[in-house]
Design goal:
Blueprint lengths: L1 H7 L5 E3 L8 H8 L5 E6 L2 E5 L5 H8 L6 H10 L5 E3 L7 E3 L20 E2 L3 E5 L5 E5 L2 E3 L4 E4 L5 H10 L5 E7 L3 H7 L9 H13 L4 E5 L2 E4 L4 E14 L2 E2 L5 E2 L2 E13 L4 E3 L6 H8 L3 H9 L5 E6 L8 E6 L6 H12 L5 E6 L7 H11 L2 H4 E8 L11 E8 L16
Parallel strand pairs: 1-2, 3-18, 4-12, 20-21, 21-23
Antiparallel strand pairs: 2-3, 5-17, 6-9, 7-8, 7-11, 9-10, 10-17, 11-14, 12-13, 14-17, 15-16, 19-20, 22-23
Helix pairs in contact: 4-7, 4-9, 6-7, 9-10
The protein binds manganese (II) ion.
The site of manganese (II) ion has 5 residues, from β8.
Amino acid sequence: MLREIIENFGDEVVRVSTPVRKELEITRYLLRHRERPVLFEDVGGWQVAGNIWSTRDRISGYLGVRKEELVHLLTDSMEKPRPYRVVSNAPFLKNSTSDFSLLELPIPKYFPNDGGHYFTSAIVVARDEKGFVNMSFHRMMVTGERRAAIRLVPRHLYSMWKDRAEKGEELDVRIIVGNPVHILLAGATSVAYGVSELEIASALSEKAFGKPLEAVEVGGIPVPAETEFVFEAKILPELTNEGPFVDITGTYDYVRRQPVVVFERMYHVDNPIFHALLPGGYEHYMLMGLPKEPQIYAAVKRVVPKVHGVRLTEGGAMWLHAVVSITKQHEGDGKNAILAAFAGHPSLKHVTVVDEDIDIYDDRDVEWAVATRFQADRDLVIIPSARGSSLDPSAEKSLTAKWGIDATKPLDRKEEFERARI
Ligand code: MN
């Protein structure tokens, strides 16, 4: 459970024992301590935590791997999902009520122009007619005691909802809040329809902890046993305004017509911790960006035999900018790696390709490679008017110029580019 996980982070944790308001105040603390978990002990009588998974080191440490290995752990789990184990009991089953109001829960309003109070760490689990279980992140704006607007990007949950909505029916879902990072990362992957993200979480659990994910059926829909809050809810065939809201780039996303979700029952563990995921914060970067790194890695690997590492950088909101290190074997490998990286993550806008002696986790080292190994007239690739991210305000209708920097050493003059060492 989240409490033990946070306790184990020890002195890293910022504890806020004074009462904190859920309107804007939580944001101030999370921005002040961007890389440290913050535990709020009194948000209207509830406990809240944020920045829990805001660094690569904390995530990889919890999963028992080095940060360089995270990309492989995720790749393996996405390629080979594993069945979860259905159990009959879970700590959240201890507290269950149909008498609650979302207005009384510690659901933050993060920024002044947000359309309302937002669930940001919520994962939705749904089952289709054939029994397939989908699990995905969705932000939800609270619009009443039991109602919210749910942002459904046209992917899997959207198509499950649409199938029902066209018949005038509701979609039964479970909403979970307060999860360990293997569940969060699994929920953030973009795998094909028919591959269950719950089974990706189970594969991660087997690799990290040597045991499958345990799940409990709540009214016929499985949810992870270790989650803090579970809600039984229905997504209606009815739309309402959602937004504005800050997305990963830290800029405002606009108002859209989105489905209404109605909350019917709430379950929670004793003394639950509500997870406040700061939009545009490092934790948001990690959870959205890390599952994209395996896609870039795999795409580059198809064209360059030896890929050393891939990192989406915090400076690029872990969405728009990447660094890829390769072992160059042929002249031109750097440029091929650039093109492949764009294919692997279509939202990518800027990629820097370096040799394996560069530390891709150190922005200064990457800049050093650009400073000493790159010539703009030869080594720069610009792709005008490509389709990019809708989250980049400088793109027009998602059309963007992409650019790649080949900062690898020329093979025939390699020695001249070596860093002096002792
Ligand atoms: Mn899915």
